Amino acid sequence: MWGINMTDVLIIGAGVTGSAVARQLSAYELKVTVLEKGSDVCEGTSKANSGIVHAGYDAKPGTLKARLNVRGNQMMGELAKELDFPFKRNGSMVLCFDENSKDKLETLYNQGIANKVKDLKIISGEEAREIEPSLSEEVVAALYAPTGGIVCPFNLNIAMAENAAVNGVKFEFNTEVSEIEKITDGYLVKTSKGEYKTRLLVNAAGVYAAKIHNMVSANKINITPRKGEYCLFDKTVGNLTKSTVFQLPTKYGKGVLVTPTVHGNLLVGPNAVDIDDFEGVNTTQEGLADILKRGGLSVKSLPTRQIITSFAGLRAHEDNGDFIIGEAADAPGFFDAAGIESPGLSCAPAIGEYLAEMIISKYPAKKKENFISKRKGIPSMALANADEKKKLIEENLLYANVVCRCELVTEGEILDAINRPLGATTLDGIKRRTRAGMGRCQAGFCSPKTVEILARELGVDVSKISKNDEGSEFLTGFIGEE
To answer: Would you say the C-alpha torsion 465, 466, 470, 473 has a positive or negative sign?
Structure first.
C-alpha cells in the first residue's frame, strides 16, 4: 500500500516550466516535490519543440507572454553558463515576401519596441540575403532581431531539474494525478502511487493543465492540444542558415521556420493543427509535405534527401491566448502555470522566477544559505579539444569506447548520464542527455549496446529496459523460450 506523503510545495509536471519553478523554489527552506506522469523529465511538450529563444517582438505588449519572453531571453545567457547547457545567440529574421505586407513587419517592429526588445531593425531583401545567402529571391524585406537565439531544449530542462534535485527537490516519476481535494491546511492529491498532502500546489501540467486546474477551481479553463510537425536534417546541411528564419505569422502561430540547431543540424517546421488527442504526436504525410513546401519559400532549396527524422510535438493552447500564471482566485494556495505555448521555452526561466517570487511573497520562506546555483553537464567527446579528450580518457578509459558513431558518444558519457542526479533509466533518457541515437542512423547502430549498458548499470534484466514509458520495452522474450 502507498502511504501519505507530506510536502510544502507540490509541483505537477517535470517539463521545462515545472523544472524552472522547482529550481527557483529550491533556493528556499521548503520541502518541494515534483510529480511527473512520465518516466523522466522532459517527456511532454518540452521534448518536441523548435529550441528557439525568441527575441520578444511577436507577443502583444502588456501580455505575460511579452513580459516573460523578453525577461527569459535576457536570462538565458547567464543561466547557460551557470547550468552548463548549449545556447547561442544566432539572431532571427521574419521574412516578408510581398511589398503589400511590409506594414505587418512594421507592426511586429513596433510591438518589439514596446516590449523593449533591443537592436531590432527592418532590412531590405538584399540586406537579408547578405546575412543569409541561401534566402529566396522572393524575400523583399525582413525584421532582423540579433538577440534571438537557439538552445538545446532537453538540456535546458534537464539542467534546471538536476540543479533543483541537488538542492533537495524530490522528483517522483510514473506518478499520475487522478484527484485533488481541498483540505483545511492545503490540498490532498491522489495519484497512481499514493497520496500527497501539500500546503501549496503548482500546476505545470502542460496540455493537461486545464484538467488539473478544473479539479480545484470553479473558474474553468480550456486547453486545446495544437500539434506541430518537424523535419530534422543531417549535420552536413546544418549551415544552410546561420540565423533562425521565420515567416510572417498567422493566427495559428509564427509559421514554418528554418533554423540551425545548437548541435549543428537543420530544423524545419512546425505546422499548427488543433487536435483532440492529448497524446497525438504522430507525424503525417500531409503535414510533413506542407512544412517542407512552406519552408522552401524561405530558402532557395531545401536538401530533402538529408532529412534524418521527423517528429511532432504538442503546444498547450489556452482559449484566451495568454499564459495563465498565478494563484487561482477561488483556490488559495493553488498556483497555475497553464497555457504555456510558444514562446514558453524562451519564457521558462522567467516563469520560474516570476511564479516563485509570487509564491514566496504570499507564503514567506527563508532563503537557503547553502543553495548551489551551478551545475556541470556531461563532458562531450564530440565537442572536446585534443587536450580535453586526452584528460578525460586518462581519468576514465571508457571515454575512449565509442558507442554512438554518428554523434561520437562514448560509454563514459552514457555512464555519467545514468549515474548523475535524476539519472537516465531509458533509451530516450540517454539520448536526450548525451545525443546517443540522435545522429544519421537514428540509433540503428548504438541501441543494443546502450540497452546493455542501462541494464548492467541499473541492475535489471535487459527485457526491463524501455524506450521511454512503461510498455515501450525493446525485448519481449527470446527465441526458443516457451
So the answer is: negative
